[in-house]
Amino acid sequence: MSSHKRYVVVGTGGRCRMFIDAIYQAPFSEHADLVGLCDISQTRMDFWNRHITGELGGENLPTYHADDFDKMIAELKPDVVIVTTVDSLHHNYIIRAMELGCDVVSEKPMTTDEVKAKAIFDAIERTGQNLRVTFNYRYQTAISKMREIIASGAIGTPTHVDFQWYLDTSHGADYFRRWHREMDKSGGLLVHKSTHHFDLVNFLIDDYADTVFAMGDLKFYGKENAEARGEKYSYQRYTGNVTKEQDPFALDLTADERSKGLYFDAEKDSGYIRDRNVFGDAPPVDIYDTHAVLVRYRNGVVLNYSMYAYCPWEGERITVNGTKGTLEYFSRGQGHVIRGQSDDELADEQYAGEKYMRLQKMFQPPESIEIPPAKGGHGGGDAKILERIFLPDLPPDPLKRDATHIDGAASILVGVAGNRSIATGQPVRLDDLLPLPPKASGAQASDVASLAGTAK
Ligand SMILES: NC(=O)c1ccc[n+]([C@@H]2O[C@H](COP(=O)([O-])OP(=O)(O)OC[C@H]3O[C@@H](n4cnc5c(N)ncnc54)[C@H](O)[C@@H]3O)[C@@H](O)[C@H]2O)c1
Asked: Which pLDDT band holds residue 452 (cuts at 50, 70, 90)?
């Protein structure tokens, strides 16, 4: 009997490519068939069909408007629905797919608030179907190495985490050009982006958060901030109005085939403008770009988290401190440098990127930890998570990285609580939003002992 599973994708924007490409390539193509596409934009679905019949050598797939989701399931009978729509819509498709007898693979964030999370939990209980949330960051080689070291007991019992994430004026700014700038679509960056980071902390220290206190503000992007700095903009979008040379935040959606085919050409049937002026007000930016969050975990660990989205460079520093020592990971990307405006040679030298991991046990000198090389997107995370999604009969993962719907909820709830705390000035308990069961136990010292290079 064939072990092929049938998949459909709902939400055919940028992210679905990772799943589509994987399904058409070995080894995944031996176990998975993509059988249909669903979106509000026929242009976007046609774009992916051209990619499938062209680069991937597949056959043209049936396409369905979002209103015909049920019809698609009835006609194509997929085993699994892959959800890669706008964040605030994930729950609609997760729940309906399960009601129609399908399992679901959903992109992060699982959803954007506690009410939708509860509805997803209820659907899982009602239908018995399975939901996987694709936390690819857990599978990054650096993060996996950190979990291995912490699980080995090398820093003793974790007690305190410092987690800083810097988004630059290129990648960070992009959240303010797109639907992500609207709180009701993305839940703000504390949900949309930080769901990855809070999930990483949950994964690294092997517990869920209890109480969250946060401060946040919109300090840089948006019309009001620009005007307060004396900047005036006559355009609400970039394409056709301004070049990168005139405005460093400009984006030309006609500059490459993918942006043009997926977004510029699709404006006519989706109405979606992907290159809004980050300092415009149509629609206004109503998310925060500057965040500081304090979290107490159920096991007593305290987390000091910060994230902002207009840094000249991009990267992260994650330090996990314990009763026997400390583990630190630092990664600095290239940075957003506009060539020709200053000393390019110096820029090359300083912004070449930097990465290190150090373990320092108490009373001992620091030990440099080799970060295993990463292949593919998101620090090697994309390639690894695809294996876990599409390959059958995989051996158990010693690091226990596969995320459940409970993990999905546990990470968004920290962001949801953070947003509420910012609005009210009060700490928020996760149990008051949506009580979660105890975290399933993560990897223990015995699980990781066999992994090469485990720090003792
Ligand atoms: N794990 C990661 O590293 C990662 C990276 C990028 C994106 N993502 C996630 O993937 C998802 C998609 O992001 P993206 O960058 O592809 O965004 P996108 O804007 O490119 O695509 C979203 C798609 O949803 C479609 N859509 C809008 N309304 C719809 C509706 N009512 N029904 C069905 N489809 C609808 C849009 O037409 C569009 O094609 C998001 O949830 C995002 O958080 C995850």
From this structure: low
42 lines ligand 1 (CB under 6 A): no
Q: Is the distance from the beta carbon of residue 261 to the nearest atom of ligand 1 less than 6 Å?
A: no
Our answer on whether the CB atom of 106 is closer than 6 Å to any ligand 1 atom is no
Other beta carbons within 10 angstroms of residue 383's beta carbon come to 17
Ligand 1 centroid to Cα of residue 319, in Å, is 31
Ligand 1, atom 25, lies closest to the CA of 11
| Ligand 1 pocket, mutate which of 40, 165, 385 (most atoms under 8 A from CB) | 40
Categorize the per-residue pLDDT at 218 as very low, low, confident or very high, splitting at 50, 70 and 90: very high
Structural domains of the chain, with CATH: 5-133 (3.40.50.720), 139-220+286-377+405-448 (3.30.360.10), 223-270 (no CATH)
CA–CA distance, 289 with 306 (Å, rounded to integer)? 11
Q: What is the pLDDT of residues 97-152, one digit of tens each?
A: 999 999 999 999 999 999 999 999 999 999 999 999 999 899 999 999 999 999 99
Q: Is 122 helix (H, G, I), strand (E, B) or coil?
A: helix
